[in-house]
Write a structure and sequence with these properties.
mainly alpha; flat; binds the ligand C=C(O[C@@H]1C=C(C(=O)O)C=C[C@H]1O)C(=O)O; isomerase; Chorismate_mutase-related; Chorismate mutase; Chorismate_mutase_GmP; chorismate mutase activity
């Protein structure tokens, strides 16, 4: 196996984990969405989003990825808000 194929195998294994975790996170987000619907709360909670980002940036072993991780979490939370909004219709 070439070096490139080995790296891609590694990426595939990581993606498998990411997909499993993303699905689990989305299922929990939908429960939050249902709670918000019942309690008439807005989908966006900007202060919670800031906390999620800060907490996870803090967990980074290599701080050079701070900008990338911030974008990653912000993009994911944009998706989860969209999913909650869709579900609340
Ligand atoms: C899931 C929530 O709804 C939104 C999505 C968030 C997320 O995906 O972590 C965080 C805050 C909210 O803007 C929440 O309020 O906890």
């Amino acid at each position: 196996m070439s070096e490139l194929e080995q790296y891609r195998d590694e990426i595939d294994a990581i993606d498998q984990e990411l997909t499993r975790l993303f699905e689990a996170r989305l299922k929990t987000v939908l429960k939050v969405g249902e709670y918000k619907r019942q309690h008439e709360l807005p989908v966006l909670d900007a202060s919670r989003e800031q906390k999620v980002i800060a907490k996870n940036v803090d967990r980074l072993e290599d701080k050079q990825f701070e900008e990338e991780l911030t974008k990653f979490f912000q993009s994911m939370m944009d998706i989860t808000k969209e999913t909650q909004t869709k579900m609340m219709k």
